[in-house]
Amino acid sequence: MQFNSYLFILCFLPAFLILYFLLSKWSVKVGNLFLVIASCLFYLYAGRKMFVVLCIDIGVNLLFITLIRKTKDRAKKVSLFFGVSANVLVLLYVKYLNFFITTLDDLTGLTISTRDILVPLGVSFFTFQQIGYLVDTYRGKTEQNTIFEYILFVVFFPKIAMGPITKQEVLIPQFRDPEKKKCNPDCLIRGIRMFTLGLAKKVLFAETFATAVNYTKYYEISGMATSMEILMIAVFYAFEIYFDFSGYTDMAQGVAKMIGIDLADNFNSPYQALSIRDFWKRWHISLTKFLTEYLYIPLGGSKKGKARTYLNTMIVFLISGLWHGANWTYILWGALHGGLQILDRIWENGWKRIPKVIRWILTFLALAVLWLLFQADSVSAWWTDLKVFFTSGNFKFHETIPVAFLIPEVKGAISFFGWLTGASALAIASAQTTASLVMMVVFVVGSFVICLCAKNVTRRSYPKTIWTLVGSALLLVLCITGLGSESMFVYNNF
Q1: Which position among 135, 233, 246, 470 has the lowest Cβ density within 10 Å, counted as fewest Cβ atoms?
Q2: How does pLDDT run across 139-188, given as a tens digit for each residue?
Q3: How many Å apart are CA 170 and CA 172, to the nearest integer?
Q4: Phi and psi torsions of 319, nearest 5°
């Protein structure tokens, strides 16, 4: 079930809130039981087979949690090792087996058939969180947690599909808090506004940029793309993936906030970054913190010399790239981010002497080029795009591309005004072409302004005035009426 669907917004969410607050009046345990049931129903909508896989996965992890708690010393380490390995193997099987098979075929000339593998919704996210829970159990941080609380921690529906990755020590105490079982008007209003802003990011911005990327990629695939169109793909996709994933996170945090639960922050104005290292402190923060705590630091972090620090950094980003998907594009994307992180460490003092504006421009351009790789079908396709950009010398673009930005409201208004004034079809079409160019500029400039100036939803204030209420209501109505067909989030693929 997608957050940006009529079923969720008009049926599931209102019913969930009403029943949750009513049942929570009985006791904390009853409220938490309903949370588990609602989360299971939410996940079950993705498919019964996926739900069965999730249940088996939880059961296996519970077995290892019990073994870790009941064993000592070396046996405890062995239990942790096999528990973590089991989770990693599951992830490797469902997400990467076919990638390994096709890669082996390419290298050896064999014709091994790929498998038809079911990839559970959110498998990358809930697997990492369960690995974190196993490690925390080994460190003695989960002794007070019950089996039921562990299950609720894993299946809690606002975060199960695409995060943010939240630690058990942050989330489980909130499930126990009786105050969070009460309907808090402030939390409810704040949560609704957070959800609305996230929905606006997805429906109004991410979807528009996604359409523009598809329009532009037509010329890329057909070999007719110009340098300007390659630049457009890079910029459009940079905004698409930001508004898409940030929008989902805002909605997830908003739903949780409605019932008084605070999820981990995932974004802190990432396109304000002045370096790649700065970017990764702002983008997908929960993933960065997870990999830092459970991989980078155990590998030795930055305490074993420069060479080891650089190696650890590269390992972390290779894992991050592979985590995002089974394709060489993601692996190279992770490797290049790791390489830029290392270069940033080496040249840190010199980089800081460069004016901030220049650092920002260079950082954003580097990110756009790497996002171009992130969305490419293959490394060779990305390389071809770069060659076209640097050798084409043609900075024109096809006039059909801006049409993606001509939202129905504007198009309808032009048609109506043209009919009212008796304008010819040619004049109306010309006006729509001009309007599409204007709208493209408005969307791109507006997106830069939002990314560079607006605060993230968890960090902004929400004044309680009649104007903010009306504004939020109108924005929500606009988003709901603009939903159209239910569309997937980019990070659903990861």
Answers
A1: 470
A2: 999 999 999 999 999 999 999 988 899 999 999 999 999 988 888 888 99
A3: 6
A4: -65, -40
- Which residues fall within 8 angstroms of residue 202, CB to CB, at 6 or more apart? 3, 4, 243, 244, 247, 248, 251, 489
Burial of 106 per CB tally in 10 Å (0-12, 13-18, 19+): exposed
Q: Is 265 strand, coil or helix?
A: coil
> How far apart are the C-alpha atoms of 491 and 419, rounded to whole Å?
43
Query: Are the C-beta atoms of residues 187 and 257 closer than 8 Å to each other?
Result: yes
Amino acid at 283: W
Residue pair 1/15 in contact by the 8 Å Cβ criterion:
no
Interatomic CA distance for residues 313 and 341, integer angstroms: 8
Q: Is the pTM of this model over 0.70?
A: yes
| Dihedral sign of CA atoms 163, 164, 169, 175 in order | negative
- CA distances, 20 to each of 181, 256, 258, 365 (Å): 8, 12, 11, 46
* Tokens of residue 447, six digits: 């997106």
Question: What CA–CA distance (Å, rounded) separates 71 from 85?
Answer: 18
Coil, strand or helix: which one is 283?
strand
**Which token pair is 189?**
């209003």
State pLDDT tens for residues 204-254: 899 999 999 988 887 777 778 888 889 999 999 999 999 999 999 999 999
Cα 149–Cα 150–Cα 156 angle in degrees, nearest 5: 80
Q: Judge whether 324 counts as a catalytic residue.
A: yes
User: Per-residue DSSP letters for 295-350?
Assistant: IITTTTTTSS-HHHHHHHHHHHHHHHHHHH-SSHHHHHHHHHHHHHHHHHHHTHHH
Give, to the nearest 10 degrees, the angle between helix 48-70 and helix 73-91. 170
Helix, strand, or coil (residue 267): strand
Length of the chain: 494
How far is Cα 117 from Cα 115, in angstroms, rounded to an integer?
6
Instruction: Give the C-alpha separation, 457 to 265, whole Å.
Output: 10
Q: Are 208 and 405 in contact (CB under 8 A)?
A: yes
Q: Which of 284, 324, 337, 398 is catalytic?
A: 324
